[in-house]
Here is the input.
Amino acid sequence: MKIILDQDALFDNNKAASFNRDIFAKSKTVVINVMSSPGAGKTTLLEKTVSALSNEFRIGVIEGDLATERDAERIRAVGAKAIQIETNGICHLDARMVSKALPEFDLDEIDLLFIENVGNLVCPSKFDLGQEHQVVILSIPEGNDKIVKYPVMFRVAELVILNKIDLLPYLDFDIEQAKKDLQGVNPKSEFIQVSSKSDEGMESWFDWIRSLFER
Ligand SMILES: Nc1nc2c(ncn2[C@@H]2O[C@H](COP(=O)(O)OP(=O)(O)O)[C@@H](O)[C@H]2O)c(=O)[nH]1
Ligand SMILES: [Mg+2]
Here is the structure.
């Protein structure tokens, strides 16, 4: 009996990530991996972003979830092309999954590609997808202690977005403490506060995106 190793199994994540990175560089696509715990507001933020910035940038979205195509449908409803990756129980996206979704896009026609990772504050931080930028969303109901309790995720963030600030009057969330904690875990990370519901602060998020095209 002969065992033939699946070539795919040898094609490790970092190789696939650098393959993706080359593709993004060739097409000059700005790629942002968006990570958070489930329900922090990734899809809502992306819906608002697509609605606000589609006249400035050609936007595509890759959605990662354990099951269902619901998030991709939400993004399509606001007018962007969205491809859903269903991970069948795997708690994060990996670079090979992303590389399989890429042929669905004409990347020469996409300026800005968001990858909404699987909702999870641990696993996704460990898998390079070939993106240049990583954003982590934390939301008010999760509590300000999550930065120090899940430092691995916050360490890889270029930008931390504190979402759901409309809920501040109803929940105990110490923003100053969160900023201090982020400073301790990842002093290089930028920090902005938004509400995807009231739109407060959204302009600073949009400006941050615009700044990526000026670097
Ligand atoms: N109050 C409030 N609710 C929000 C905000 N952003 C998202 N939500 C709600 O939070 C829930 C989860 O949002 P969703 O975008 O699906 O989170 P995801 O799982 O990270 O993609 C939904 O009920 C949203 O309407 C916000 O800024 N304020
Ligand atoms: Mg979502």
